[in-house]
# Entry
Amino acid sequence: MCYLDNSATTRPSRPVVESVTKSMTEGFYNPSALYSPAVAAEKEITACRKLIRAELNADSVVFVSGGTEANNLAILGTMLQKRDRGSVLFSAVEHPSVREACLRLKSQGHDVKEIPVDARGIIDLEAFQSILSPDTRLICVMHVNNETGAVQPIGEMSLLRQTYCPQALLHVDGVQGFLRVPLSMTQWNVDSYSLSAHKIHGPKGIGALALRGRKAPSPLMLGGGQEGNIRSGTENTPGIAGLQAAVENYPLANNMHALKMKLFSALRSAIPAIRVNGPAPDSPSAAPHILNVSFPPVRSETMLHALETKKVYVGIGSACSTRKKQTSTVLSAMNVPADQAQSAIRFSLNPYITEKEIDFAADACAQQYSVLCRFERR
Amino acid sequence: MRNLIMVRYGEIYLKGQNRPFFLKLLVSRIRDALRCQHAKVWLNDSRIYVSDFDSQDECIIRLVKVFGVHSVCPAVEMDKSNFEDICKQATKMMEGLHGTFKVQARRSDKRFFMDSPQINAAVGEYILTSRPDLQVDVRKADHLMNIEIRDNAYLYVKVIPGAGGMPVGSNGKAALLLSGGIDSPVAGYMIAKRGVELCAVHFYSFPYTGERAKDKVLDLARILSVSACGVRVYVVPFTEIQMKIHELCPPDYTTLIMRRCMMRIADRIAEKAGAQVLVTGESIGQVASQTMDALVCTDAVSSRPVFRPLIGFDKVDIVAYAKQIGTYETSCLPYEDCCTVFTPKHPVTHPKIDKTELAEAPLELQRLINDAVENVEITDV
# Structure
């Protein structure tokens, strides 16, 4: 088997499974209770919080159920506090959890604008600058795009914000970027950053919103006042233990970039017709773990199922959108031609992938393509 | 006094000497449908009665889906000797209802001391004295208070329409070509409604369609199977045939030849399954493969009749029907259209049989069809 859909989710690593199991069997106490085992459970949470704070240079960390909730909290929770209806900007390639939250604000009367991207799926800085104004209240942009692996110019955007609307908050969706592309919230003046455990070999159902130098967002979940009253609900202690183990054990030094390049060159030499969706794979704007290529004229779904027979599992865009029958909003924002968009395949790696697996996947693609490309629509 | 459900049947009334056969079958279909409700089902005096159920509402939901059931009435059965009690019960059953009403008595026990008009008048008057807000309207009443005097007295107000049709199993067996689109489940439903037992044939083109597309078809078959009393689904591996057609046949004929292959395979499966006819969801002129000429061409390869219950339906009517029988939403799930790679840009719309035969001549039809039939995957839903 060769699992290359790690941007959809990853397999929890052994230390993560052990940590979660230990938390469930031994440290199951409610961290809000008063006896000593409960206090120990609370300390575990504090330890994980500290770890993530250090990793991102954040001031505080709020544990939530995952990336979607973190983004919702950052966007809706922030704008709930704003008395005035200042404008909200989000990039045209955002994940639905950001896009839909922003569109909700729009339906409530906020001025919401899309930041255009270029053909590589990277923010068009000139266009971005032109829509910044003193009225801008919130800017939402993803660190790494989930479909194309494009790394957004957070640093440059932050500087422009500093010049044109210093009071605007910058929210970065780091679900695909956290640990895979380094980022310091202090260095780039990022005000909030979302992350999710299951993309880095942690368990599903746990994520966090990291905050720095800003007022905390208003809670979307009301109740017992956990997480500093920002996110009520008994803490997901096994999830947090799993997140901690995932962060501690993530191999920061890895050769994903090299293997991605190997996969790309193997594909290019076997199938000259392939087209890259996103930045050039070897450019600094391309994340080390995501490669999106089109195999015209073979449609994405057909290629995916054909690779499935070889036990090579890949993605077609965002897993959240496969239930909808339409071309990806990300690829259409990049003006990718329809036939290219309809044959896009996303390979996403993890640090444990071996060279052998990459060779195997490239071979499988070449073999299946050579059969399928003959069945072009006439 | 007890609550029960009175089930009325429709068309079976028209049957002459065969009526007992149909009734027996209908009772057994109802028993099957209500098995999980532990209900007692019996036939008496040209009505089917259901009693001793766990939940009346659940029974009704199930009953209205049984083919052969004309309507279902939640009723009260009571001793007919105390007329005052009957009046009281009738008044009680009018609680919460407003507007106009009419009492409609039927007396099959002719020894009963009042005749039907007398019962109507007496019960109507009784109701009016305690419910002065109601009015009697004998022509167009909002509510009909039915009182049937048989071995016992049966009272009911609500009449819930059933699915109609004939009990499944009363009319042979058919093999339905089930694609996963909107039309074929409707066609299957219509045929099953006439008392026909169904099996379904689905053509599976992995990797052009995936596991989810197959699940969707099984889900559709599952929806049909509630009314059709179980459906066996034959999933036919079809990719090789499609690829060969694409490779060897003229592009404008590929869809038509594909349809002919489907018919041949369905015909073979029907033979195995003991089905006498094939059923498709085609309607004249809907797409290129459904023009009159194309239909004639596909018909020619089936050794058994091909029934097309939707033949004269417009698409909007088919959609409305699909919504009514609850298959529309599943049909609209997006995992199906991957076969478009095999759809030619300009399919032939007025094919001739001799030309079609010539076009498919390069195919090793016998072997391809044998292979497909041999590798069929069977699922009972």
